[in-house]
Design goal:
Residues 356-376 are annotated as: Disordered. Keywords: Transferase. GO terms for molecular function: transferase activity. This protein is α+β, with helices and mostly antiparallel strands. It has three domains: 2-130 and 306-313, Aminopeptidase (3-Layer(aba) Sandwich); 138-283, Aminopeptidase; 316-355, no CATH class. The chain has eleven helices and 13 strands. Strands 1, 2, 3, 4, 5, 6, 7, 8, 9, 10, 11, 12 and 13 form a 13-stranded mixed sheet that branches. A hairpin with a 2-residue loop joins strand 9 and strand 10 (236-245). Helix 2 runs antiparallel to helix 7 (207-218) and helix 10 crosses helix 11.
């Protein structure tokens, strides 16, 4: 096998077509974060994005998109922003993983959402986790029946709140695939507020991530698109979501809602309406991603599997990386695995978020005093 490393933007039309061909041929690769369009977009915004093109005498056999950071530290494409990564190839392709790292000039590659079972990486999988999905291959009605089986009480409660929201705030309207940039700005503002309230890092404080979402919002082909949805009560937006899709799968990415309407559980109401709209549009599945929220358990009608693990070549960099990352990864897995620990951690972060917000609200009165003479 020959391995050539290039930037995704350097791929020609025939190479991009081959990428799409390999992706469509394997159902386990049916995820927009594995699409060539996402890799090219990331390459426009980040200097460290690369793709290894694997070929033999008969042609291209696979693509391995990744990020190469300082000291040869390798990370999945998109890192913390994405919920799926891996090798885009025929299912049976098996490479020497350490030889692949050597060709990519990587000392270590740490993964946590890898397509499970890929022969190249399977020996290095340390854990495999389920990612719940809403499966519409048997139709929307079959899916909603499964939700009733999973948790009839929750579904009944959400439907009640849905009707109450419509009665008290205005007739509900759901918009699928909005092209309006102002709707996107509204959603991202809600999401930034959520990050701050819950003690998380505000991803949209980084301009390149905002630019990425704008680029993805502009994508609209049969094989790849950004899908912006919004639920309205009357003319007022109350909950929305922005995600990416292939021809058949939508992946959850950025859901958020207006906290003024929190008593109506607008986020879950939105998810039910989004599921119906996705099924009507011809999609087969909504991938909700692994871990996190309880609502995923009662909305799911199937699971996919993603793997966590690490590959390294002997080096001082790999040793230092192991010391810094492995204990953290194990602790995170333990927390995500146990609902009681997850809820406790979530409460701590929300408490931190409230304290930080309170401190920020007090800052303006002091900031004026410290402003230097002549500042504008």
């Amino acid at each position: 096998m020959n391995i050539q490393v290039v930037r995704p933007g350097e791929l020609g039309d025939s190479e991009r077509a081959r990428w799409r061909e390999l992706q469509k041929a394997d159902p386990s690769l049916d995820n927009p974060f594995l699409s060539v369009e996402f890799a090219v977009a990331m390459d426009r915004l980040r200097d460290y994005v690369r793709v290894a093109v694997v070929s033999d005498g008969s042609g291209i056999k696979g693509f391995f998109p990744y990020e190469r950071h300082s000291f040869g530290i390798g990370k999945p494409l998109g890192g913390f922003l994405t919920t799926c990564h891996g090798l885009i190839s025929a299912p049976e392709l098996k490479l020497d993983a350490k030889a692949l790292l050597r060709a990519c000039k990587l000392s270590v590659f740490d993964f946590d959402h890898l397509v499970a079972g890929q022969p190249t990486f399977a020996p290095y999988e340390q854990d495999v986790r389920p990612a719940p999905v809403m499966d519409f291959t048997s139709g929307f009605e079959a899916w909603i029946e499964q939700v009733k089986v999973n948790s009839p009480k929750n579904l009944k409660t959400v439907r009640y709140k849905e009707r109450k929201l419509g009665r008290e705030q205005g007739e509900l309207r759901f918009e699928w695939a909005s092209a309006d940039p102002e709707v996107m700005r509204t959603l991202l503002a809600w999401k930034s507020d959520q990050y701050r309230r819950t003690g998380r890092v505000d991803r949209f404080a980084q301009p390149w991530i905002v630019e990425l979402t704008d680029m993805m919002h502009a994508e609209n082909s049969s094989d790849f698109a950004g899908v912006l949805t919004m639920l309205y009560a009357g003319d007022v937006p109350v909950a929305g979501h922005f995600g990416l899709r292939t021809a058949t799968t939508l992946v959850g990415w950025f859901p958020a809602y207006d906290t003024e309407y929190a008593r109506y559980s607008p986020g879950i109401v939105h998810h039910l309406q989004m599921a119906e709209a996705a099924a009507k549009s011809g999609l087969h599945m909504v991938d909700m991603g692994k871990g996190g929220k309880e609502y995923k358990d009662w909305l799911k009608s199937g699971v996919l599997y993603v793997a966590e693990g690490r590959i390294s070549r002997p080096s001082a960099t790999a040793a230092v990386h192991w010391v810094g990352r492995t204990p953290f990864n194990k602790a995170r897995t333990i927390v995500m695995d146990r609902p009681s620990l997850y809820k406790a951690a979530d409460r701590v972060l929300k408490g931190f978020g409230r304290v930080r917000t309170s401190m920020q609200q007090q800052e303006p009165s002091n900031a004026v005093v410290k402003e230097p003479t002549g500042a504008r």
